[in-house]
Amino acid sequence: MKEGPDIAFLGSLIGDPARANMLTALLSGKALTASELAGEAGITPQTASAHLSKMEAAGLLQLRKQGRHRYFALADDDVGSLLEAMMGFAAKKGHLRTRTGPKDPALRYSRVCYNHLAGDLGVRMMDSLLAKNFLTPETEGLGLTGDGKAFFEEFEIDFEPLEKLRRPLCKSCLDWSNRRSHLAGSLGNALLTRFYDLGWAKRVENSRIVAFNPKGEKAFLKTFPV
Amino acid sequence: MKEGPDIAFLGSLIGDPARANMLTALLSGKALTASELAGEAGITPQTASAHLSKMEAAGLLQLRKQGRHRYFALADDDVGSLLEAMMGFAAKKGHLRTRTGPKDPALRYSRVCYNHLAGDLGVRMMDSLLAKNFLTPETEGLGLTGDGKAFFEEFEIDFEPLEKLRRPLCKSCLDWSNRRSHLAGSLGNALLTRFYDLGWAKRVENSRIVAFNPKGEKAFLKTFPV
DNA sequence: TTCATGGTTCGATGATAAGCGAAGTATTGT
DNA sequence: ACAATACTTCGCTTATCATCGAACCATGAA
């Protein structure tokens, strides 16, 4: 209770890439589970757990236990404002990052975020779906259009089981690797498993990387043009 | 030019104790030389140099070369505001620091800051001088009272050479180890050398630590009571 | 010129902490 | 009861980066 400047502590807390990714993901205002945040940051749950408890102890995060889930959210508006301020400042100065984010650059290209596709490909898919008007931004989350439903049925997504779930069908999720949104929710989940089933891609063992094979990648790019 | 969240970079920049100390020292608005900042942070000039160039490259600091000195100041008001915001936030949350500041805990007790006494003892001296009305806070810096002048002459400080110098006589200097001010300026300098001459203390080789011997410390505490 | 001072660059060392695997604790579902 | 899921704790490895010593450059003083 006696010591150097506390802004150093605060800065170092935000200064870690993994933590910063989680924080920016939480800037949406939603509460996310520990595993979701781990996915968002591209790290394993254990590591995420350590980060999260640190941030909670520091008063940056607020924890709500619910069943076997632990939902984390920004502690209060002050945290959000501070993060916004820092982002604004960084943007103004046009900081070119040098430090490497989490591990693998392949993670930036395509990875799982919890249970759906994230990374460059995830963002591309989202952009494509929005551009073709298959999805529309709505007040709370995302909406599925008629054309969209047709498109996904053509793609052999089975909507029946999805609609029974309590989880929202479409949800947008901020991507740490390029600060844009990709598709989450049960639809995002279903699409990813469909990619697996089609043999386009598969999970790399012990990693969040989603490895597309050459023809899978080609097909993907054709299916979701920019 | 493609990467993770820039707030991580910014945070890590501010997150280092040494850099944070320099930044808070610069919050006074004054421009300080590289060596002064090194003293302020309790690190060697080489290390400070590395930190300073990093911060300048990141757009946090502004550099003005003048003769063989390099004066650093906060780049603009935005930097100041951001630091203020972070300090306010940290204060509100009452962060208790865990990370150790620069090296040695003895540094926190008494060390040289450029050419004058800093650390707990430096702050104590300043407090004492203010309480006894030997120094007074003025609009720009510190003022020496009549009583003060008498006191220092009693203490055998020779004012003649000091008044010829271009450097200000009294100057307050923010102390990183406890966020309070100590006495800088040529008077601060003169006092420190007087302590050496009196045999109260001496510099530890290759360190910024000012080691008081037992009787020197006792005399010091008596001379500058709280 | 020579010396001193303010700063920087380089190389090596060391401490801190991020990350993961493996094993453990809860809680929910069947 | 059993199994599966969500998350944590522990121990270890690895990388990063702050720090310092030593040597080097530049400016100013004698």
Automatic annotation (TrEMBL), chains A, B:
<dbReference type="InterPro" id="IPR036388">
    <property type="entry name" value="WH-like_DNA-bd_sf"/>
</dbReference>
<dbReference type="GO" id="GO:0003700">
    <property type="term" value="F:DNA-binding transcription factor activity"/>
</dbReference>
<dbReference type="GO" id="GO:0097063">
    <property type="term" value="F:cadmium ion sensor activity"/>
</dbReference>
<dbReference type="GO" id="GO:0003677">
    <property type="term" value="F:DNA binding"/>
</dbReference>
<dbReference type="GO" id="GO:0032791">
    <property type="term" value="F:lead ion binding"/>
</dbReference>
<dbReference type="InterPro" id="IPR011991">
    <property type="entry name" value="ArsR-like_HTH"/>
</dbReference>
<feature type="domain" description="HTH arsR-type">
    <location>
        <begin position="1"/>
        <end position="94"/>
    </location>
</feature>
<dbReference type="GO" id="GO:0010288">
    <property type="term" value="P:response to lead ion"/>
</dbReference>
<protein>
    <submittedName>
        <fullName>Metalloregulator ArsR/SmtB family transcription factor</fullName>
    </submittedName>
</protein>
<dbReference type="InterPro" id="IPR052543">
    <property type="entry name" value="HTH_Metal-responsive_Reg"/>
</dbReference>
<dbReference type="InterPro" id="IPR036390">
    <property type="entry name" value="WH_DNA-bd_sf"/>
</dbReference>
<dbReference type="InterPro" id="IPR001845">
    <property type="entry name" value="HTH_ArsR_DNA-bd_dom"/>
</dbReference>
<dbReference type="Pfam" id="PF12840">
    <property type="entry name" value="HTH_20"/>
</dbReference>
<dbReference type="GO" id="GO:0046686">
    <property type="term" value="P:response to cadmium ion"/>
</dbReference>
